[in-house]
Batch of 2 targets.
Target 1
Amino acid sequence: AILAEASWPSAPPHDHRRRSSKVVGMAGEAEGERKLRFKAGVVQPSRQYPSNAVKTSKYTPLTFVPMNLWEQLHKFGNVYFLVISVIMYLGEATPLFVGTIKAFSTLGLLMMMMSITAAMALFDDIRRKNADEEINSSKSKVISKVSRDRRAEEKEKKWSQVSVGDIIVVGKDEEFPADVVPLYCSGDGGNCYVSTANLDGETNLKLKTAPTASQLLLSKCSAPIGDLDPQSKLFELNGEIRTEPPNSNIHDFSGSMQVEGFASESLGAKQLLMRGTVLRNTALCLGIVVYTGPDTRMVRNSRPAPLKQSNLEKITNVAMGIILVAQLLFALGTAMLHVKMTPQLKGHWYLYPSEILLPELFGWWLTFVTLYSNLMPISLYPTAEFCNAFQCYFIRNDKHMYYKRPDFNNGTGFGASARSSNLCQELGQVGFMFSDKTGTLTQNDMELKRLSIAGRRYGTFEGTGKSGGFNGGPDLQAARQGAGGKAIDAFLEALAVSHTVMATYGSDGKLCYEAESPDEYALVAAVAEQGWAFQGRRGNELTVQHMHPGSSSSQEIKYHVLASNAFNSARKRMSVVVQRGSEYLLLVKGADNVMMERAAAPDKKLEEDLKEFSVQGLRTLVIGCRSLTKMEVDAWKAKYDWAQRETEERDRKLEDVAEEIEKSLNILGATAIEDKLQDGVPETIEKIRFAGIKLWVLTGDKLETARNIGFSTKVLTQDMDLRIVDDEEGTLDLNEIESEWDHIWDPAQKAMMITGKALTAIMQDEDERAKLLSVSTSCSVLIACRVSPSQKAELVRFIREGIQPQPVTLAVGDGANDVPMIQEAQVGVGIAGREGRQAVNNSDFAIAQFRYLQRLMLVHGRWNYRRACKFTLFTFWRNMVQVLMIMYYTLMSGYSGTSLYEDWIRLSFNLLCTLPILAIGCMDEDVPASTALAHPELYSVGRLGKDLNKKKTAFTITAAIAHSLVLYFLTIPAFPGMELFGTGDYYTFGTTCYTCLLLDVNYRAGFITNTHNVYTIGSIVLSFALYIFWLIAYPQNPWLADKLAPNMYMVPEHMVASPYFWICVIAVPLFAMMIDVYISFNHHHFLPDVRDRVTYHGNKAGQQDAACPADLAGLVSENSDDEPSSVIRSESDSDGGVQYDPADTKQIDLSDFAQQRIWTHRIRHARPYLSVVYTGIMAGTVLLAMGLVALYYSESCDQIRVQYAESPERELDFMSGLWSHFPMGTRSYEKARANCSATIGGEQLCHASVLLKNGMRKPLLYYALGPFYQNYNSYMKSEVMAELTGKEVSQSQREKSCVLQTRVDSAGRQIVPCGMKATSVFNDTFEVVGYDLVFHDIAWKSDVQRYNNPPDYPSRPDTSWLYQRYPETIKKEEGVKTHAFADWMRPSAVPRVWNRYGYLNEHFGPGAVLELKIRSRYPMDTIPGGYKVIVLTEYGAFGARHSGFGYILISAGALCFLLAMIACATYRSCPQGLPWLQRLLGGEDSDEGYESDAKSEESP
């Protein structure tokens, strides 16, 4: 309950009583016997005890931040990203190593994620604090003073102020504020009734009794109640109370009370009124507070359920560990490449690699570890929490799991509850189910059906579910008048007296029974109809109305109850010692095995009757008695009283004393009670078995009863080979069973029954234990009978610890005895039955009826499992694609650690790419609920872990690599065209790639979605909308761009103006979709899973399965296949279900959203290959068209490429070689080489005559340098933007961004602007003889406008200005506002530079010859593979010549058509797939079982 309330804010605030509590003041103490002395009505505690104030809230204003931070740092992901942020900061702020990623980009996101979690925790804590204040401020009445004139003064106290020793006054329907020993109760004989619903959920009232001495003393007065009758005698009350130390046992209490003038008497469970219980049917109670705060039974029982980690979380943690190792290895590999390349980079004179303090390999390894840090998905934790919360919401509000009956839950409806949000997906992975029987499979609604008395049977049983009660009454009454009447009356008398039932009278004057056990209620009510009617109790006096047989006369018989030996699961019997007149009787009832062991003589006829009753599935009790002498009673009673007075081990001593007298019993007969099956149990069990879940039913019934119930519930079927492990009716030789089962390969045909006695013997032997594990896991059903609660939990643990891989276990029960089993299982489900709410309060999920397990597991569990796996794999996939793109780009940036994406753009990745998967993780449905219920075999996907395993992980990695390559090979070839459009700079190109990545991620989210609705589509639209908003608010905003990243200013505007941007954003998702559709077709066709067989393969031949809706065969719009949401069904005994107004319930939300009934598109095809064909035709056509257009415009632009410089050294590496002198599509006649003279004074004069074969219209001149690493990390960051915009900057700012060589020249002058970019400006000049070049509009206007010279330009002394360093290129009057400089300052995205130089406003006809004069000053000869080229080209709508992009698009389009044809041919040649391939590869349809430590389970 704690975990449920803490995880989602919709838990009701009044549930604070069931939360784990800390208490203001002293902690729960470890003490011995507690003594409270009272004199003249005043109690004087011997010591200080804890306060009674409860504090369930965790935080205070001072502790919230540190405590919550500490809690969140227990998550591996949070610690990881905090450490990464620290490492990033060290690389950013110190020279230890090079930090290429700013720490804020990770730390800011981490803080945002942790803030969301902290806000939810704070919200929950505020609710807890308010609930604490409400309960602590409740009022109670205490006796403040008792005067000698017998006047007692009352005053109100807050519950938080109540202390040990206070005498409190509690009236009818008031709640006890602490644990109290009653002194006086206004009921008959000092009795009172309390409701313990707040403690254990039981609705039956409990009888409590004040100690005899204090009750007698305080009731001896003549004043009326209104004048504080008992309080007036408190002055005369002197004595002492001794109690046991505080503990959590709500069913037992041990203590004693010594009142002056009276003998000491023991205190038991009936003398403890616990905090949280409510006084009922009693006017007044006075009591002494003995336990407060943490010492009360309620608080000590309010401990949280054990923390259960979901199987999916474990797998995810392992996956994160593997990803971390992969990240470290990737980083190591890249660092080694960097170290290898560093010596060669020394030839690049313009680069000044950063000097680091750490060893080079280790330092650069840290650089790349931080660069690839996003491989670990930071958003997975909040994504999982968000989706889990909504999955819980849908479970809680499912109207198909809402139950209401007039006789259930006080007429209030009960909806399903989800208390452990992290286990929602576990419901879809259950491999073993452990179920209680009574109250779980049955209604716990008992009816007496048959009796066996003195060798004769009474009543008949017509079959399970037939109502009518006991029909043997006439025969029984007739027999009472005959010779056997005495035996019958003795039997009925024992049933009427030996019980703990209470009798009350309703408002109509009718006698009503309140019983803790439904068995006792059924028996007492039944014998009342047969002439022995229990009337009630007054103290130790019990009254029975005896109706004489054959007459209307009756007689009241009074019994004095001398002792009562309580029932427990170990004794399996209860007895009373009573005095009737001068006779003393021991009346006993209990389980047949323990009663027969204590019988004076065997009764073969009764044993035969018991066996017949068990075969019919009835619960049996054997009744016995023994006459006692007064001497025997007195001797035994002395021992009993001694045991009652003991405060240590009282229960054991009482059991030992009871054992002495419960022997040599005269067996009177037996009862047979039917516990009716719940509605839908057989159908539910049948579906659970068809789902492949192994079902273990654990019950306390005898073997025959359990076997009969097994068949009636369809746990067992006639075609099963049933083996019994028992020393009486079966065999204990497990080897024999195993050998006989060797020829049965199907687990569904094998079943086993085992008794608790046999189980105990087997568990003590390790070899036998291992053999039991092997045999029991090879069958589909096991029924364990005569097992105790501890054995139930032991069996769950037996499976969890013995089988590898560990299966998901689910335990379902309804009573307190099922709590150990529920808490031991991975998933605990509580049934809200008649045995209270202990199981519900300690469970992970709660439902009202066993049949709701169908929907809880087969629908919600399966959906949630597939959703969770989907968002987990998707999150890993999308981060992997992003990091792979960054890693590819690292190879292009000189292994310098440059990220492909600008930091502030990259920062939005987790948010924008998480939004689409949130709706899918909450609402995706691969099949409708009706199909999931009609085809339970679909459940095997989760049970066998098919959606998140090694194969799926490998497939996800493969898909990530494929998508990253698609992104890479469709965007990189577009670079030349983007460069000539002025959008090939690092910032614009990176933003283009990021946009394509975002498109691909959102497309992929839509592709893996099974059901599209307004939320799934809206989340994708919202992702794009937020991205567009961010692009407008950040790069397009001059103020914000200047603050964050000035070079991003106006990037979106230029990006969208390029046609290559639009081609990329269309081509990337189209081609990726084609690849996905083709792979998906092959997966579903050759390795189909169960869902594929149900949806696709079942419709191939045109057949339409009645259980498989038609909407699975095409595109449909659906709302739901269920009834309208305005109708809820409640159960009725008279008919199957009646409708009632939804206003009857406030517990569930009936909106279409809560019921998952929103409008939905579900897309499926009867022939999946058609998806490949349609997609191939569509994508291929579009890609071919775009490729042909791009190629046409490329080929239509004539060009002349004149190489005028080349390094004598070889090319640096393969990546540099990609950026060759002449791009794809360059014709031989378009290549030329200039004639250059010797170098004089650092300048070389070159001439070239070029023939324009086809002529040119207004040609563009641009220069090409390569390889040139403008995208080298330190090169790009080597600038002071404030200096470029004309602002005053400090020397420290310059030193931080500019190395010494780029800050001070050889003459000691300050270089302005400083930095590698500003000191490596291209300064070659070009001249077309006879023509004037136009130099404007070659740079972004926004860059030229924002660059400014400083106010003292150019008069500042000792300064080296641009125009002085590059006089041929930079004009003095322009300085930094020169177009050529502004264009150069936008670094190229790839290791080559294609920058525009100028235009010719002339048209040249075919055959024209132009003379080029080149002054080569820019040094490239030291750069390995370096070259310089001047290009004269036409410039069209798609830029200039770069045919490679068109060829790539055409190839992609052709591949789409080829894949479509292959898919069509595959389907035509192999319409049923390749079954042998499925078997060879262990396809998704193989029903893999679990492997135990002893033996692997066979599977079909």
Target 2
Amino acid sequence: IWDKVSDATHLLPVEELEARFRKVVVAARPQDAKQSSSADENAPQNLLRIGMRSAGPKAALQERELRRLPPAETIGRALAELDDKMLALDELERAREHACPEPAELELLRQEQQLHPEAVLARREQYWSAIGDVKLYRERFDSWLFARTYQDRVSLQRDNLTELAGLFSCFLRSEAVPALLGVILATGNAMNRGSEAGGARAFDLEILRRLSSIKGADGKDLRFSILDSFFVDTKKGSQLVEDLRPVFLNVSRNLLHADGTAKLSKTVKLTVEEADEAVSAIHSEYLERHKAMLACVEPLAVSDLARLRLQSEFAVASQSIEELVGLRDLVKSQFAEVLSLLFMSTSMASADFCFLWDNLLVPNDLLVARSVGEHAAYFDSAFCQGEGFTFGELLALWQLREPMEEDLVASPASMSETVAGFVIDRSVSLGCPDRYADPSAEASDAMERVSNLPGPCNVSCQFVSFPEATSNGANLELVPLPWTKIDVGTACSSVWTIAGNFATLLPLRKLERHFSLSAIVAATAAQAQSELRDEQKRVGPLAFDPGDGEQLPNIDDVVHSLQKPMLLLTGGDATGTLEQLLRVQEQVLPLANSEANAPSYLQALKCVPAFGHRLDCLSFLLTCRQNISLLTEALEDFSDVVECFGCSEALPALLGVILAVGNYVNGGSNRGRADGFDLGELDKLHAIQDSDGKDLRHFVLRVFCEKLSGQAERLFRELQPCFLNVRRNIVKDSLGAAKLEKTIRTSLEAIDEGVTALQKQLADVQSALQAVLEQGADMPMRNDEFCEIVPSKIKEVETLVGQLVKLRDEVKEGYTTKLSTLHMRPICSSDFCRLWDDFLVPGELIVNKGKDDFFIPAFCSGDPFNLEHIEALWAIQRPQEPLSSASEIGEDGPLDAEEFCRSLLPLITSAEEFADVARTYSACPGTRVDGGDLGEVERGQMHPAIEAALFDPELEIGVAIGPVETDAGFHLLLARKKCRGILSTTISASHVLLPRGRYHEPSSEGRAVAMVPNLVGEEGVVHRTWRRWSFATSLPPAHSHLLEAETESALLEQKRQALAGTEGLRLLFRWDGAFISTIKGTLSDISRDLVGRIMLVGSSARVDEEANVIGELLTSDSSKQLRPDKQGFEARLNWSDQGWIEAEGLLDADTMCTIQIDLRRSDLPSGSPSSSMRLRVRPSRLAYAASQPGLRLGLSSAESMQDRCATLLTVLDDGDIQVRVDNGGVERVDPRPGTVVRATSFSHMPGRRLMLLLENGKIVDAGVLHHCEGNLHRVKLHATGRELSVDLNEMNHCVQLAKNVSSFEASRTAYCRQLLKDGRYIEDAITGNRVDISEQIVRIRMELRSESKTNEELARLPFDDVEWISDTSFRLGDRVWAQGREGIVEHVRHGRYTVKFADGTSSQAMHASYMKRARFIAGVQCLDFSEITDISGIVPILLQPRRSLTGRTRGAHLAQPVLIR
């Protein structure tokens, strides 16, 4: 191949190559033009450097950190003035660690400066000099850094100590813990009766660790029996879980799955010892920094600001740290008190203490056993997510009940109770039936335990001696419990003094039945017998257990296939299949030579001569053709890989660039002047890096793509077979770090092994066939076609295998020849493909850019990539081709590329005009001829900025938008069509690409001149074919803005008082915090200096124009002065009315309104010509004012949907209202859209027929006897004749228009059937085929809140499927709403967030209170939906009253849609 490689040295940018990759970088001092040009004066001078404190990677790290610092003068001035604004906290820490010199180093620097006064200081030495000019710089650094960082550490430790205090206090106040210890005490005394260990009043709690070692006859350990006895009192069990919740939350559990096995890892989050160590460290550091502070402020003047600031900071720090030390001592004494209370060793570590209780109730072995099976996700969610578990989940862990979606526990009053549709069986908590050998014993034990439930554990301990004889008179010896008895004094205050007598709670007969020595011996013998039977079945299943033969195919079918295999081999309706034959081969053939008595199945097979060889032949014939086809396809694929290197015309060009670079770098050595090189050395190019961390491959590819762009495009087309043979996938290692995993799809070595194995199988089958033929000649059978058919079939396979072997040899020879052509040493095929793939697609680049949606689909989807993908991966920017219209671009053009894009927008009014502009001006060679057509675009295919613009929910079809900036330049975009499918959304789009440069204005007679560019569209509301769901919600204020919340509450109270006495339910709103979306223009086009009036459009309440003015748009500078508490575009909207406003006439039915901003520049008078922008505004702060007595309202709450109605009684002083609930009592309500809605009053005449919905969910016929008052009626049920008084509302009745309820149900059914008939045929959304819906399966699945969505999934959801909620913290990549627009969190720093919007712009850093998080609308959360089998089943569930259906924002003046997928 080197004969085709030409010299490419002339293509190399030599200066750049030397500057980036030379071994020694010399910094030359600027020369004075007046000085002589002698050799001494012109020689480059080295920078002044002092001996390095570190070398190698540490030196490089220090140099990199210094580059991230502000200038040295800024550091010095900030240190002298202690100015926090000049130096951020991270910069202060970086300067202290990397830029602060040691005293000896600073002294050495001063000496060198005196010797070389004209020398230029290196970067590090500049910082040394600037910092060293400040007196006591080290003490200043330490004092300043401590003053800025101690608060966070103190706050963290205070929170930790507070949690630990709560953890220990739960033992001091718990009544359930003594109750549990009382049950263990009673159990141990029962097991140790008659021995010295019996009769204990207390025991060492170390025995809790060893309860699992005492196994019963049923195989379960003693913990099962103890907890089964204790949890019979569900109230005590629930209280125990609640009391010890701080302990359980302090233990982190993590299930790890490796090599097919599960392992549970437990760690304690907070310990007393670690908190003590951390607090002591903070206190010690404070004492040291206080001394340094005193030394710093001593030489300063008394009024010096730095002195006053440090003294004030350290005074506050002293008080905070002293309080922290006191809290630490309190927690330590509290822990010691708990240990003393429990009679435990005072030397026990707090981590061991937490493990002791967590392992007792959530043991590792039990949780690991539950982590496999159908309920694995249930237990992982309950116990391994760090959110705490419920009593019901704990019962399910111990198999005391089945796992359920909701943990509902019945009251002890009844054995069976229905709660919210779930039947809770008390017998579950009393013991499962399979745990009792005798049903009568089960009933007796259950009754004994229920009748002896103890009360609260607040009585003094009474020891009860256990009788030596059981209830039936037998003397049974139990397994002893090896505990350590503790002598509890009568005056000693401990947990044992309040432990009740729980002896009567124990089922003694069950304890004897499972833990007596005789029962355990019998169970051990039975287990041994079972294991023996299992071993016999494993050795010979057919010989010992004829029942297993039922798993095998019918013997007659197998014999028929062995004698007449034609149908089986030709693919007809054969009576035997390949799987059946393989099962016979696996289970029966091993018994053919066994000495055991052969079963009937084997005897029948032996009637067929050489049946084993026949099975081998048939199984081979049924599988060989598929194997041959796969191997042939693999050989052809690898042959394409080999040929692509032989036919490539661009590969020599790439090798020429690499050769030229190598010869230049190795110039002057024996490695230079090479005519070629070993291509196996390509993997060494990444080791040669420049100061920016870019290696030699980047330089080679940049030269190749820039200088030989045509060859570069051809290279990636030609080598596609090689790249497609590599499968790339981003995975995470055991530590959670991402890495790129590459696997070879087809390797020549694996194919060779497959062909060789196939040859061996063919030889074995030929030997088996010979044996069948010989035995068939000796024992001929009637109707035996095997010897006639199979030999010819095997002959055909032999021919195919021969052709496969020939192809294999040709490919191997071609691969060897290609290695010789490339002058490469012998290398396995997988390493060969990986070598070229690693050179062009290195794993570290993919991983570093793995968060970008552009690179994963490009390189990890299995599709071919092109030059554009490689350039984006390596960050290579090629020079753009010049525009064909030379008159539009030039060096002296007045417009830059962005301005030129804006000037093109008025020329575009249709898709045809956009295509003409693309053909005239676009610099994209691939789409210019087609009018900029990009085809159908999906998410993940385009540059993120282009994708964000095209998939913006507010995108208008057929309207040009832009400019959008990318690495290639600026783009204009046009969406021609939007298709929203089930699987994805696609947009048919076009674009115009303008590279960066200077342009002349485009010429057009009809071009519009506008003050603000890119405000396209006629005035008026734009009608879309799709729209957002509108719903009202009252968003609570963030915790950091309590003052603002109090002000808002006061304003609301004033407004409600002003409206006192008005009729109806009056909706109120505030402009602040409203959602803003554009319908004409783009927010990014409103420059900082534009102002204008804000006017209400389409208002029914405002007549004259001046009355419609509701505010003004401020400049950015003015907004910072007038509204410093607001940020972004919202800060520039200065509303005239800052309080609560009545919505009547202002907001439409969707609680939205349209406003228009008349824009003008701030330096022009108000009457100047202006452009306008129209916005849609939806207030997020809503409330109601209600004061009319007798007003009917529908009520909602955080726990339930709108399922109650009420009548307003009176208005309270703070604006809340007092209502009487229908069929209930009096409640206090804050009237807001989330709590109330207008309801209807009913007054029916006597005799009116009704359909009445009863409390049990049943609909019955009723008649009105008379109207009492308000909504109260006296009605009579027709079916039973029962009379009752009931408040009638829209939730519980309707007028009966049918004959009766049965007639109504029949009419409804007939109506639904008619709908089904009329709409029977529909069009499939994906295929377009017409399908009959009666033949389809409809799956209904409710999207519950428990199904969490990742950021990537949230980003792909349509705008209609998300709602916006307030939050106090966000993460990178979160989808948020800020400044009236949608975007993602791009950067987080010091609790402030930068948001990147859909148009590519970014916001300034803002607080979390100015942002709202996207949350998917989960639909109605009701588990009953899982039981629905028909569409008609949805209606009763939605109508059933008092049903908790959360998941959608509830109740308002709007109808709420139900999201059902």
